[in-house]
Amino acid sequence: MAEFRSEHAFLSVWVGNKKIQFTNGFAQTDDEEIIKALEQNHRVTRIDKPEEKEEEKNEEAKPKTKSTKKTTKKKAEK
Questions:
Q1: Region Disordered: what ranges (predicted)?
Q2: Pairwise CA distance, residues 33 & 59, whole Å
Q3: Which of 14, 20, 33, 73 would you call most buried, defined as having the most Cβ atoms within 10 angstroms of its Cβ?
């Protein structure tokens, strides 16, 4: 199930011979053809996917931290 939001309260989008209507600026669909078309539409944003993208961005932004515990190496050398 994909959820979409539109700035327009009532918007109708035709994809081929299929029609999806936005009520109060929101719409849901399971149809893959409609989902692909709405993702490319500049008037519509997908609201159920951004969580995954935010997590990926957070992981990329954080550099890997090195361990501050170096005592194990020193003990192994002795």
A1: 41-78
A2: 31
A3: 20
